[in-house]
Structure prediction request, 164 residues.
Amino acid sequence: MEIIRVHSAKIVQYIEPHLTFTDPELKELFVEDLMQQMISLPGSILLLAAIEDEEVKAFVIARDPGYRVPFAQVAQLWSDPDNPREIVDQFFIKVISWALALGKTYIRAETSRDPAAFYRRFKFKPELQIMRFNLDTEEFQDTLHKHSVEFLQWATSSTQEPKT
Prediction:
């Protein structure tokens, strides 16, 4: 199995079925954004693929969120369950090297799966808890209604001229 760095956005069609998103709309947006970023900002993406018999057997996508951001982000990682564990190890060595070359001081990763393997195997540390609040739900409408009077008072008072 050969690990290569992929520069062509054409690879996305081969890895898309293995992207780990529970929300199909987010997956579609991620794919569009990834393809655009690979074309317009190729140095900000590290996409590695493990290829065997012209088939993608594993991949990792790491991103540079920006010049001043101190970390590189592992955006996606997938490996066929039949692959040897060393494939993912090799990916991380290459991601670490890439991040260091960019002047990053750490790597950040999010997962919707159990992160225990990352903690054990790669010594990742929990950093933050990601929360989500949907704006298109009944709860949002209730919250909006509850706070709309307060918000309107705040918004109108903050635009008034200061009293002298």
About this structure: The helical segments are 12-15, 24-40, 86-101, 116-122, 138-158. Residues 2-135 form a domain with the Aminopeptidase fold (CATH 3.40.630.30). The chain has a mean pLDDT of 81.
